[in-house]
Automatic annotation (TrEMBL):
Span of the signal peptide: 1-29
Organism: Vitrella brassicaformis (strain CCMP3155)
Upper classification of the organism: Eukaryota, Sar, Alveolata, Colpodellida, Vitrellaceae
Compositionally biased spans, kind Polar residues: 458-472
Stated name of the protein: Peptidase S9 prolyl oligopeptidase catalytic domain-containing protein
Keywords: Signal
Region (Disordered): 235-295, 458-510, 522-541, 1217-1240, 1353-1388
InterPro entries referenced in this protein's UniProt entry, alphabetically: AB_hydrolase_fold, Plant_Biomass_Hydrol_Est
Domain of life: Eukaryota
The UniProt record lists the keyword Manganese: no
C-alpha cells in the first residue's frame, strides 16, 4: 500500500537496545551548545543527474573527475556547468539551500519538468540524484568518545571522507497525504571528531535529513513504566526478607478529576495539591535509600527555575499528530493539555510529550505549585563511549515493539504464555573498542493494568478507587477482585487491547510480577548440522562459544535472545492476569571490550502485550529465520477449530477432506499417498488451511492498517510475515525465505496456541492461499508461481510483475555504453522473478487479480497484463482438452463482465474498481470478495485443484524457482540462467481398464540435466481423479523418449530425496546424491543474494595495519574495513541481520568454530591482500573456474590483466572444514521405511523436496560442509575497493571491472559458471585476450557443453596450471608478497 503505515528505522547507542526516536522530526537541530549542529546549515548541492535504477555504476560526474573535482571547482569559486540529461537546458550547476531547525533539507528541482519526463520515461523520471556538501563546527568539549549522528534518505554519507551508513529509506518518515512528517525512527552512527571545521558529503534524491543526537536529551531519559512518569511519589520501600511488609501505596493518576463528590472544585484542587507537595518532599530520599537512583539522577521542576508553563505546543501537536489505530503505547501517552510542562533545554515546539504532572500541581494562573519530580538516569556530556539508556521520544512513551521498522522484535503473551521464546535486541557499538562476550539479563518484570472510566458517569467511589497505589500487594489485589464499577467493566469490554475508546479516561496501575522472566541463552549463528534450530525438541541454537559474536565500533547488530518464564507457586500467579494489558521487562546488556575498559550496562524496558486466544485476538510471535536472526509475524486465528469432517475420505486426499486415509495392501503406497497433516498426528486432530498475507512497501506486518484489512476465516490461520522489514527485499531472496521460515514456524510450534487446543488447530502448510497488495502483490505472484503444489488459490492486488517493468531502467548509464548481449546476460540473473514467465505454473489454480482503476502508483495495466497472459495459457489447455479437468468455477465474481469473455476462463478472474487508487480500505476484504474466499478455502477443507492432463514445469534458475509443478522438480540445468522446462503429459488409465492399470507420464525436457520426482508425487498425480493408484499398477515414465517403467509399489527408490533422474550419454536413469558436493545445485546456483539468504553472513576484510606497510596499503586496508562495516550496517538496516565482521587474521583463527555454523562469506581482498582469501582460495570452486591471481596480475582463463585498479567479483562455493574431519555426505534425518509397521509416515519437505532433513529452514540442506562465498579482489587496493562496491548483491557469477564502471556502468567482461563450475562459454561475455593467446571463452564459443571440459583442461595446460595446483614442472606456484609467479589454483 502506498506509504501507508510507518517506515522502519533503526536508532541505537552503544550496545543499547537500539531504540527509535519518534519525534526527532520536530526537534531543533542542536539544542546543546556543545553539540555539533546541522540545523540552519548552508548546504551546497550539485544536480540533479539521472540515477541508476539497476545494474552497476553510473555516476555522471565520474567521467569528469568525480565529485572530488567538482568540490575543487566549488572551493575555488569556479562556476562550472555539468551535463545533465534531465534538466531543462541540459546542464546542472552548484546551488545552495538551508536546512531547517531539525536538519531537514528539501532540494528544489525547479529546473526539471517532471511531467514531461514522466510522459517519456514513466517512473524512471523520478530516478534522480544530487550531491550535497556542508561544513559544520565541532566545539572543544573536553570529552572522549563518539558523537552520534543520523542521516535519513541516503544510503551512505561521508564525514571528512569517512564513510557512514544512512537510513536509505528514511524509515522514520510518516506518510500523510502529500506531506512527509518526520517522526524520526533513525539509524544512528558513531564517529569521533576533533574540535574544528568538518565536512559532510552525501548523495540524495529529493530530500534528506541529517542531525547530531544529544544523548543527554534524546537518548537517556528512561521512565521505567508509564505510571511512574507522573511521579508524586514513585519509589516504594522494598519488602523485607520475610515478605511481611507491604509496599507503600501512593497516588498515581494520569488524569485527576477536577470535581470530587461532596467537595467544591477549589477544595478538591487544594487538597490534592497539598498531598502532592508533601509527596514531592520525600521522594529523593526514598529513592536513594532504595538504592535505585542517586541525588544526581533527580531533576526538580520548580517555578523558581523553570519560568511559566508552556502547554500550547503539546496541545497543538496532540491534536494533529497521527495516532495509528490499535496503538496501545499511544494510549498510555494520551493526556490533557493542562498536564504538560516544558523542560529545560527542550524546544517549545517539541512534538514528543513533555513530562506530565497531575493538574493538582498547577494553579489556575499557570504557575506551579510544589513542582514535580522527574526521575531519570542522566547521560553526561554530548559524546558516547559507554552503555547508555535510550528513551523513546515523541509519539510513543514506551517502545512499540512492532511499529514499522522499530528495532525490537518481541512476542506477545497469549493466554498467559509467551507466544514464542525469542526476542531481538538491536545493538550499536558506539564505543571506541570492539565489544565481545555480550551478556543479557532481566532486572525487573512488572505488570501494567489499564482500565477506562466513562468521564461523564464516573462516581466519587470510582475516583477514590482509582487513587490507589501504583504497585499493589497481593492482599490489595485480592480485595479489589470483583469490585469494579459497571463503568469500568464497560470500558474493559469496549477495549480490544489495541484501540481504546477516546471518550473514556484511562487509569493505570502497576503490579509486581509473581515469578521471573529470565534470559535462557543468546542466539548465535545456525549450525551446519542438525535439525530445526527453533524447535525445543531438537537442536536449538545457542552460541557454544561467545567469541563468534563481536561487535565492531560503529557496527549495528541484531542480537537474538531466548527467554525463559518461571511462575511462582501462588494460586493467582500468571504472566497476564484478568486486567493486565502489558508486561514490562527491563533488560540489561553488558559486554567486554578489547581495550580492557569497563563500561556501564545498557538498560531498556520493553512491553510484552497480553492477548487472548479464547477471544481470537490477533497476536505476534517471533521465530528464527535462516540466519537465526529473530524475526516476527502476526497471526489471526481461525474463528472456529478445525474439527474433522464426519465423512471418511478416499485416497484422493488432497481434494479437500482431512480424514482417514485409504488402507491398501502395500505399506509404501499408503505412505506415499498420504498427506502427513491429514490425520493431524497421534491424537487424531485435524488441520486448518493457512492464508498468507503479504504487505506492501512501507507497511508493517504488525500494523492494524494491514492486519485489520485482512479478514479472518473459519478453520483458517492467517499469517502476516514481515519480509524482514517494511521495505525488505520485495518478497524475493531473503524476503521469500522469511516468508517460508514464518510458515514453517507456524507449522512446527503453533505459536500462541494453548497446548490443550493444538490438536484442534493444526496448520496444513500444503493448503495455502496467498493474498498480497502492492509490493506484497508482487510477492503474491512470486510465491504462487514458485510453489504451486502447496497452493489452493491467490488474490494479488495492485501488483507489479517484475522490477524492470515497474521501474524502467531507462536512465541507466550503461544503456549508452554496454553491449546489448552483455546487458542481456546481466538481465538473465533477474528473470527468475519474472513472474509472468512462471505463470504457466498457475494454470488450473484459482487466481483473482484486484486493482483500482485510478491507481497511479502501480498502474492497473500491469495486473491486467498478468491476467491476460494467464488466461492465454489456460485457454491453450482447455482448447485442447476441454474444461472438464478444471472444476473450480465462480459465476458471480467481483468485477465479472456482463458479456462472455473469449476463452471463458474458470480460474482466472479480474476485478477492477473504477475510481479507486492504489489503496482503499477494502482492497482485499470487501464484501464482494467473500464468495471467492469461500470458494477457495471451502470452510477449512480447501485443497489444490485436480491435476491437468498436460502441464509445464519451468525455471530460469534452480536456485530461485525451486519447488516445481505437480511433482516434477528441476534440480540442475546445462546452461545457467537460461530457461529450462519439462513439458509433461499424463495419460491415466480409463475407468474401464482392467487391473492392474498402466499410467503413462511423458516428459519432454529442455536445458535440463537433473530433475526429481517429489515424494508425494503419487498423491499429486491422483488427487481429485475418479481413479487412483494401486500397488500393482505400472507407471510408464517416458523421458525424452527414453522409457523408465516400474511398478507403483517400487517407485520409492526413484523419489526425492532418496534419488533423482539425470542424463548421460546412455539416456536418463536414476542417480544418487553424490553430486551435491561437486556440482552446482539449488543451494549455490546464485546469485549471491539467494545464497546469502540461506544462513548467517560473515564479512572478512584485511586487517588494518599502520606499521610495516606502505601508505597506499595502509589506506587500502582502512577503506576495505570501512566498506565491510558499511555493508554490515546496510544489511542490518534493511533486513535486521547480525553480520559477523572479522579481519582476515581473526577469521582464520576462528575457522574451526565458524566451520560448525551455516555461514555465507563475503571476502574483501585478493589472496596477496587477504590471509583468509589466500588460505581458502584453493578449497573453493574458483580453481575449476580458471580464475587466479599473482601479486599484481589477474587471470581469467588465459586472459591476463596487468593494468592497475582492475577489480574482480566472483561467486564460489567453499569447503572450510578440515578435510580430515569433514564428511561429504548430507545429513539424514531418521525416516520411516516401508514395512516398518503401523503408524510410520513418509514425510517430505513441502518447499525443498530434495532435503534429506525434512525440518530444514534452508534449501542448502544437503551440503552442510559447503558454504556460499563471494569475493571482491583486485590487481591493486583500489581495484579491490572498486569490486567491493558491487557487494553483496552482485548479479552475475563473475565480473571484471575497471574505473570506467563508475560512469559507464559497464564491466570489461563477465558471465556465469556452468554446472561443473567451469566458465560457461554460452553464458558469458568474452574477456579481451593478451598477445597471441585467444581467450579461452571465445575459443569455446559454439562447443557442446559436454565437450567443454576437454577444452578447459587444454587451456589450463597452456596457462601452466593443473587441477591440483602444481605447475608442469612439478613445483607449486608461490603467491607470497614479492613473488611474480601466477597464483596456483586448486580444486575444492
Amino acid at each position: 500500500m502506498r506509504r501507508m503505515g510507518r517506515r522502519k528505522g533503526m536508532v541505537s547507542l552503544l550496545l543499547i537496545a537500539l531504540s527509535c526516536l519518534c519525534g526527532l522530526g520536530a526537534v531543533t537541530g542542536a539544542i546543546n551548545a556543545n553539540l555539533p549542529s546541522l540545523a540552519n546549515t548552508t548546504w551546497n548541492w550539485l544536480g540533479p543527474f539521472p540515477a541508476t535504477t539497476a545494474g552497476i555504476g553510473g555516476d555522471v560526474l565520474e567521467a569528469f573527475g568525480g565529485i572530488k573535482a567538482a568540490l575543487e571547482d566549488l572551493k575555488a569559486g569556479r562556476d562550472v556547468l555539468c551535463p545533465s540529461d534531465i534538466t531543462q537546458g541540459g546542464y546542472a550547476n552548484w546551488s545552495n539551500t538551508t536546512s531547517g531547525e531539525d536538519g531537514f533539507v528539501q532540494l528544489n528541482y525547479s529546473m526539471v519538468d517532471f511531467d514531461a519526463l514522466n510522459d517519456a520515461l514513466g517512473p524512471a523520471a523520478y530516478s534522480v540524484k544530487s550531491w550535497a556538501v556542508a561544513n559544520f563546527e565541532v566545539p572543544d568539549v573536553g570529552e572522549t568518545g563518539s558523537y552520534l549522528i543520523t542521516c535519513g534518505g541516503v544510503s551512505s554519507f561521508y564525514i571528512d571522507g569517512h564513510r557512514l551508513s544512512g537510513d536509505v529509506y528514511a524509515l522514520g518518515w510518516w506518510w500523510n497525504g502529500d506531506n512527509n512528517i518526520l517522526n524520526g525512527e533513525w539509524l544512528l552512527q558513531a564517529i569521533q571528531l576533533e574540535p574544528g571545521t568538518h565536512t559532510i558529503l552525501l548523495s540524495a534524491r529529493f530530500s534528506f535529513k541529517c542531525m547530531f543526537i544529544d544523548p543527554a536529551v534524546h537518548l537517556t531519559p528512561s521512565y521505567d513504566t508509564m505510571p511512574e512518569v507522573f511521579v508524586p511519589k514513585r519509589h516504594q520501600e522494598e519488602e523485607d526478607e520475610q515478605g511481611k511488609k507491604k509496599k507503600d501505596e501512593e497516588e498515581c493518576e494520569c488524569k485527576a478529576k477536577e470535581e470530587t463528590e461532596g467537595k467544591s472544585e477549589g477544595d478538591s484542587k487544594k487538597e490534592r495539591g497539598d498531598q502532592k507537595g508533601k509527596a514531592h518532599t520525600d521522594t529523593p530520599s526514598k529513592a536513594k535509600a532504595a538504592g535505585k537512583l542517586s541525588s544526581s539522577d533527580i531533576h526538580m521542576v520548580s517555578a523558581a527555575t523553570e519560568g511559566p508553563l508552556d502547554i500550547s505546543a503539546y496541545a497543538a501537536s496532540a491534536s494533529t499528530r497521527p495516532r495509528p489505530a490499535g496503538d496501545r503505547a499511544t494510549e498510555l501517552l494520551h493526556v490533557k493539555e493542562a498536564d504538560a510542562l516544558s523542560l529545560p533545554g527542550r524546544s517549545s515546539n517539541h512534538t514528543s510529550p513533555p513530562i506530565v504532572l497531575s493538574t493538582a500541581a498547577l494553579r489556575k494562573d499557570g504557575e506551579r505549585k510544589g513542582g514535580g519530580v522527574i526521575a531519570r538516569k542522566t547521560q553526561k556530556g554530548v559524546k558516547v563511549d559507554n552503555l547508555v539508556i535510550m528513551r523513546l521520544l515523541g509519539e510513543f512513551d514506551i517502545p512499540k515493539a512492532h511499529a514499522p521498522g522499530l528495532c525490537f522484535h518481541v512476542p506477545d503473551i497469549v493466554e498467559g504464555r509467551l507466544a514464542s521464546p525469542y526476542l531481538m535486541l538491536p545493538l550499536l557499538n558506539a564505543a571506541t573498542a570492539t565489544a565481545f562476550d555480550v551478556r543479557v539479563k532481566t532486572t525487573k518484570v512488572r505488570q501494567v493494568e489499564v482500565t477506562y472510566i466513562d468521564s461523564k458517569n464516573q462516581t466519587s467511589n470510582d475516583t477514590q478507587k482509582q487513587q490507589k497505589a501504583t504497585e499493589l500487594t497481593t492482599k490489595d489485589r485480592d480485595e479489589d477482585k470483583g469490585q469494579d464499577s459497571d463503568n469500568e467493566k464497560k470500558g474493559d469490554d469496549d477495549d480490544d487491547g489495541r484501540s481504546p475508546p477516546v471518550e473514556k479516561e484511562k487509569r493505570v496501575r502497576v503490579h509486581p510480577f509473581k515469578g521471573d522472566i529470565s534470559v535462557a541463552a543468546i542466539v548465535g549463528p545456525p549450525r551446519t548440522h542438525g535439525g530445526y534450530d527453533g524447535d525445543d525438541s531438537r537442536n536449538r541454537q545457542k552460541v557454544p562459544s561467545p567469541e563468534l559474536i563481536q561487535i565492531l565500533p560503529g557496527q549495528a547488530y541484531a542480537l537474538g535472545v531466548e527467554l525463559s518464564v518461571e511462575l511462582s507457586e501462588e494460586e493467582d500467579a500468571a504472566l497476564c492476569g484478568k486486567k493486565i494489558s502489558t508486561v514490562e521487562v527491563t533488560f540489561e546488556v553488558t559486554a567486554s571490550f578489547n581495550d580492557g575498559k569497563d563500561r556501564p550496562a545498557a538498560e531498556y524496558t520493553l512491553p510484552l502485550d497480553c492477548r487472548s486466544f479464547a477471544e481470537r485476538q490477533e497476536y505476534r510471535f517471533t521465530f528464527l529465520d535462516t540466519d537465526n536472526s529473530v524475526q516476527y509475524a502476526t497471526i489471526k486465528l481461525p474463528q472456529t477449530d478445525c474439527t474433522c469432517p464426519t465423512t471418511t475420505t478416499t485416497s484422493t486426499g488432497r481434494s479437500g477432506s482431512s480424514g482417514q486415509r485409504e488402507a491398501t495392501g502395500e505399506q509404501f503406497l499408503a505412505m506415499a499417498m498420504q498427506d502427513e497433516d491429514e490425520d493431524g498426528g497421534e491424537d487424531g486432530g485435524c488441520s486448518c488451511n493457512v492464508l498468507v498475507a503479504l504487505h506492501g512497501a512501507s507497511v508493517d506486518a504488525g500494523s492494524n492498517d494491514w492486519y485489520g484489512a485482512v479478514p479472518s476465516f473459519n478453520k483458517t490461520f492467517v499469517i502476516l510475515p514481515t519480509n524482514r522489514g517494511a521495505y525488505g527485499y520485495n518478497w524475493e531472496s531473503a524476503g521469500k525465505q522469511n516468508l517460508i521460515s514464518a510458515i514453517l514456524a507456524l507449522k512446527r510450534t503453533l505459536p500462541g496456541v494453548p497446548e490443550e487446543s493444538k490438536a484442534s488447530f493444526r496448520a496444513d502448510i500444503e493448503r495455502l492461499m496467498v493474498v498480497g497488495h502492492s509490493m506484497g502483490g508482487h510477492g503474491c505472484f512470486v510465491f504462487s508461481t514458485q510453489f504451486p503444489d502447496t497452493l489452493m488459490g491467490s488474490l494479488c492486488a495492485s501488483a507489479w510483475i517484475k522490477r524492470d517493468e515497474y521501474s524502467f531502467p531507462t536512465t541507466n548509464q550503461d544503456r549508452s555504453y554496454t553491449d546489448r548481449l552483455f546487458r542481456a546476460l546481466l538481465a538473465a540473473s533477474q528473470q527468475a522473478y519474472d513472474t509472468d514467465i512462471l505463470s504457466t505454473h498457475l494454470v488450473g489454480i484459482p487466481f483473482l487479480g484486484r486493482a483500482g482503476g485510478a491507481d497511479l502508483t502501480v498502474p492497473a495495466y500491469l495486473l491486467r497484463r498478468f491476467v491476460r497472459v494467464l488466461r492465454q495459457r489456460e485457454f491453450q489447455y482447455t482448447h485442447k482438452y476441454g474444461s472438464g479437468d478444471i472444476r473450480f468455477e465462480m459465476k458471480n465474481w467481483p468485477g465479472a463482465p456482463e458479456h462472455p469473455v473469449v476463452g471463458d476462463s474458470k480460474t482466472v478472474l479480474y476485478s477492477e474498481v473504477p475510481g479507486e487508487g492504489h489503496w482503499w480500505g477494502e482492497v482485499v476484504s470487501a464484501q464482494d470478495l467473500t464468495p471467492y474466499y469461500e470458494a477457495v478455502l471451502k470452510d477449512g477443507q480447501g485443497g489444490t485443484e485436480p491435476l491437468l492432463r498436460e502441464w509445464t514445469t519451468t525455471t530460469p534458475n534452480v536456485g530461485v524457482t525451486m519447488s516445481g509443478k505437480n511433482g516434477l522438480v528441476i534440480l540442475q540445468t546445462f546452461r545457467p540462467h537460461q530457461q529450462a522446462t519439462i513439458h509433461a503429459t499424463l495419460e491415466p488409465p480409463t475407468l474401464d481398464s482392467q487391473e492392474p492399470k498402466t499410467w503413462t507420464l511423458k516428459l519432454k525436457t529442455h536445458n535440463v540435466r537433473r530433475f526429481g520426482l517429489k515424494a508425494n508425487m503419487l498423491q499429486l498425480l491422483s488427487h481429485g481423479r475418479d481413479t487412483s493408484f494401486s500397488a500393482e499398477d505400472t507407471l510408464y515414465l517416458l523421458v525424452d523418449d527414453h522409457p523408465i517403467p516400474f511398478k507403483i509399489a517400487n517407485i520409492g527408490p526413484y523419489l526425492l530425496p532418496q534419488a533423482h533422474l539425470c542424463t548421460s550419454s546412455s539416456g536418463w536413469d536414476k542417480c544418487d546424491d553424490s553430486w551435491w558436493s561437486t556440482e552446482r545445485n539449488v543451494a549455490n546456483a546464485g546469485p549471491f543474494g539467494e545464497m546469502m539468504a540461506q544462513g548467517a553472513v560473515a564479512v572478512i576484510y584485511p586487517r588494518v595495519k599502520t606499521e610495516g606497510v606502505s601508505e597506499e596499503e595502509r589506506e587500502g586496508r582502512e577503506k576495505l574495513a570501512s566498506a565491510a562495516l558499511s555493508m554490515a550496517n546496510r544489511l542490518f538496516t534493511v533486513g535486521k541481520y547480525g553480520v559477523l565482521l572479522f579481519d582476515d587474521e581473526t577469521a582464520v583463527n576462528k575457522m574451526e568454530l565458524l566451520a560448525e555454523h551455516r555461514v555465507s562469506y563475503v571476502v574483501l581482498g585478493s589472496p596477496p591482500q587477504n590471509t583468509w582469501s589466500d588460505k581458502y582460495w584453493e578449497r573453493s570452486t574458483l580453481g575449476r573456474s580458471l580464475i587466479g591471481f599473482s601479486v599484481d596480475h589477474l587471470f581469467v582463463g588465459t586472459s591476463k590483466f596487468t593494468e592497475p585498479d582492475i577489480g574482480l567479483v566472483a561467486l564460489a562455493s567453499v569447503n572450510v572444514t578440515d578435510s580430515s574431519s569433514s564428511s561429504s555426505s548430507p545429513p539424514r534425518r531418521r525416516r520411516a521405511q516401508a514395512g516398518e509397521g503401523e503408524g510410520s509416515s513418509f514425510r517430505h519437505h513441502p518447499f525443498y523436496p530434495w532435503c534429506q532433513d525434512t525440518e530444514s529452514l534452508t534449501p542448502a540442506c544437503n551440503t552442510p560442509d559447503l558454504h556460499g562465498m563471494v569475493i571482491a579482489a583486485g590487481t591493486t587496493w583500489e581495484g579491490t575497493l572498486l569490486a567491493s562496491e558491487q557487494l553483496p548483491y552482485t548479479q552475475m557469477d563473475w565480473l571484471v571491472l575497471d574505473k570506467r564502471v563508475n560512469w559507464q556502468g559497464y564491466a570489461l567482461c563477465g558471465g556465469y559458471f556452468a554446472y561443473d563450475w567451469s566458465l560457461s562459454a554460452l553464458s558469458s561475455m568474452p574477456c579481451p585476450s593478451e598477445g597471441e593467446h585467444e581467450s579461452p571463452i571465445l575459443s569455446l564459443m559454439g562447443l557442446r557443453e559436454d565437450d567443454m571440459r576437454t577444452a578447459v583442461a587444454e587451456s589450463r595446460r597452456k596457462a601452466n596450471v593443473t587441477t591440483d595446483g602444481v605447475d608442469k614442472d612439478g613445483g607449486r606456484k608461490s603467491a607470497s608478497a614479492g613473488g611474480s609467479a601466477q597464483r596456483t589454483l586448486g580444486v575444492a
